[in-house]
Specification:
77 residues, mainly beta, 3-stranded antiparallel beta sheet, 3 strands, 9% helix, flat
Length: 77
């Protein structure tokens, strides 16, 4: 029964990440639902093998999404 539930359960979409060295060159790729742990990982739109050991193009990175600002309660005076 658990197997059938797992088939229809919603899943997190896979995202693409690139590991950049100190000079901004791509050293590795990762495709996973969660961001990798460690420094140097950036989220990218897609994985292209010709970017390996090259600088990433400016349009390759995913722009960070802004969280909605928190609503602050009105102080009673």
């Amino acid at each position: 029964m658990n197997f059938l539930r797992s088939l229809f359960a919603p899943r997190q979409p896979f995202r693409s990440f690139a590991l950049l060295d100190s000079q901004g060159r791509c050293q590795a790729f990762k495709h996973s639902p969660l961001p990798p742990v460690g420094d140097g990982w950036v989220e990218i739109e897609e994985i292209r093998l010709n970017w390996l050991h090259q600088a990433l193009p400016a349009n390759a990175r995913v722009s960070p999404t802004c969280a909605l600002p928190r609503v602050q309660p009105i102080l009673a005076t």
